[in-house]
Design goal:
The complex is a heterodimer of chains A (208) and B (276).
Chain A: H1 14-23, H2 30-42, H3 45-61, E1 63-64, E2 71-72, H4 78-81, E3 89-93, H5 96-105, E4 111-114, H6 132-140, E5 148-151, H7 157-170, E6 176-179, H8 195-203
Parallel strand pairs in A: 3-4, 3-5, 5-6
Antiparallel strand pairs in A: 1-2
Chain B: E1 8-21, E2 25-32, E3 36-42, E4 61-67, E5 73-82, H1 85-88, H2 91-107, H3 115-129, H4 134-148, E6 171-173, E7 178-180, E8 192-193, H5 196-207, H6 210-213, H7 220-238, H8 243-275
Parallel strand pairs in B: 3-5
Antiparallel strand pairs in B: 1-2, 1-4, 2-3, 4-5, 6-7, 6-8
Helix pairs in contact in B: 2-3, 2-4, 2-8, 3-4, 4-7, 5-7
């Protein structure tokens, strides 16, 4: 952001620093970064302080749950310490937001495990970069009653690779490994469905 | 009228990789026969109701219509021709296919004829999908890819003196791309010994038709040695680490561990049955 450089040569001005900081956020281009920075500049001091404090607090107080690796302010997290949940089944998801999505359905009452990514060989993300070792340790040591692991990774190539890899690691431990069903989304159009999706939808058809 | 570039192009392609772009879009890398590697934008494919998402998954043979954009073309229609479903359901074959796609990505230039490389990748995916041996498909693909791009390795004649090198006692250099005989060893200090059986197999893979090469029986140990030699050669030619190569090995290790656990389980069952 050269236009915000200090003309006296003293490095980046405070505005340039703020624009740069916003620009580093995902989905924020240079123009949006400038707009956000000027919004903060014009906003009352209290609003700016609230934003700064919220940013600092999230870094200070949010940690990963030692059991499920989800983001939390309490350790273990609320789900892991809830005695009312089924403690024999774990749903493995890619990201913390997937936990929110599954919880919203109200249809799952077991525990979770967040991998923080998915195996993506093309991007250089291998099993060792995910929370897979933590899942194995957890099943061997702390959550020994687990009988089933539902792999709820996304139904794309990376998600499938991750689920098959987890299957290979977990089956020898005597765990039943299942995968979320795959088929047509609500409101879909058969004509446009791809062969893999339509094939699975036929394979896992249900009686009406 | 002087030739104005058409606003849309229809082409067949193989999806070699995808990466996220913004909220719901993806950048899809396509290997096309006539335009080589092309990065295109697929809009809205991360939404669950996207009509194109399933057709643009990596490792799909697809027919696409591309509209010319200012910086990148945009996919307006996509129809899968072959989805290679069987390959997707087996971790070993899937990891091998991802490795082949990464090689295609590394060895193809953008916007240049790549008919040969397209055919190579397509046949390799067809062979993996129908259940051919993962080793023979991968190794013959690597060798054919090197040959097509001008990096054919020399497995028979010495790089130093051009004389035939006996398989026993041969050395080889990944960086130099070939074998070195005993007489010339001093001139290539970086060369290392190469396993004689592995070298014979590589010579056969390079010189024989695919069907013949497929008849060669490989033990797990020999397959691992071939893989190690070829991975180091491909790394040296590509001049960078091949990210998916590590996952091919990780998937195999996990399979071996699972099979070992199953074997132990079976032995325990037998022992229990005998006790009963």
């Amino acid at each position: 952001m050269s236009e915000f450089r200090d003309p006296s040569g003293g490095g980046a001005t405070p505005i340039a620093r703020l624009v740069d900081a916003f620009h580093r956020l995902p989905g924020i281009g240079p123009k949006s970064a400038q707009r956000l920075a000027y919004h903060v500049l014009r906003a009352p001091e209290e609003e700016a302080r609230d934003l700064a404090e919220a940013l600092m607090e999230v870094k200070r107080s949010v940690v990963l749950c030692a059991r499920c690796q989800n983001v939390t302010t309490e350790n273990p997290c609320r789900i892991c310490s809830d005695t009312g949940r089924e403690r024999v089944i774990i749903c493995v998801v890619e990201e913390p937001l997937d936990v929110v999505a599954i919880e919203r359905t109200g249809g799952f009452h077991g525990l979770y495990h967040v991998l923080h990514g998915v195996i993506s060989p093309a991007d250089g993300v291998g099993p060792e970069d995910l929370k897979i070792a933590e899942l194995l340790t957890r099943i061997r040591d702390t959550d020994r009653d687990i009988t089933e692991v539902i792999v709820a990774t996304n139904p794309n190539l990376e998600g499938e690779a991750t689920s098959m890899y987890l299957g290979r690691l977990l089956r020898p431990l005597g765990i039943r490994v299942t995968r979320l069903a795959r088929g047509l989304p609500a409101g879909a159009d058969l004509e446009y469905a791809d062969d893999v999706t339509l094939g699975r939808a036929l394979e896992f058809r249900q009686e009406v | 009228m002087p030739g104005r570039a058409p606003r849309v192009t229809k082409t067949e392609a193989i999806v070699i990789r995808q990466r996220r772009l913004g909220e719901a879009d993806r950048i899809v890398s396509l290997l096309t026969p006539l335009r080589g590697k092309v990065d295109v934008v697929a809009k809205g494919v991360l939404r669950s109701k996207s009509r194109m998402a399933g057709h643009l998954e990596a490792l799909t043979h697809v027919e696409v219509v591309l509209a010319h954009g200012r910086s990148m073309d945009v996919v307006t229609q996509a129809q899968a021709v072959e989805s290679f479903t069987a390959l997707r359901g087996d971790l070993d074959r899937l990891s091998a296919a991802l490795y082949l796609a990464e090689l295609a990505d590394r060895f193809t230039v953008e916007h240049a004829d790549a008919t040969g490389l397209f055919t190579l990748l397509h046949s390799a995916l067809v062979r993996l999908d129908r259940g051919d041996g993962q080793q023979v498909v991968t190794r013959t693909y690597e060798l054919a890819l090197l040959e097509a791009t001008g990096f054919r390795p020399e497995w028979t004649r010495c790089l130093g003196c051009d004389l035939d090198v006996p398989a026993e006692g041969a050395r080889w250099s990944a960086v130099e791309g070939g074998v070195i005989g005993a007489e010339c060893a001093a001139k290539y200090p970086a060369a290392v010994p190469i396993d004689a059986t592995a070298l014979r197999v590589l010579r056969a893979y390079q010189s024989q038709p695919y069907e013949e090469a497929g008849r060669i029986r490989l033990t797990d140990d020999l397959a691992a040695r071939l893989e190690q030699i070829m991975h180091s050669l491909m790394r040296a030619v590509a001049e960078r680490e091949l990210k998916s190569a590590a996952f091919v090995s990780a998937a195999r290790h996990a399979r071996v561990a699972e099979e070992a656990a199953e074997a132990t389980g079976d032995e325990d069952d037998e022992a229990e049955a005998l006790e009963d």
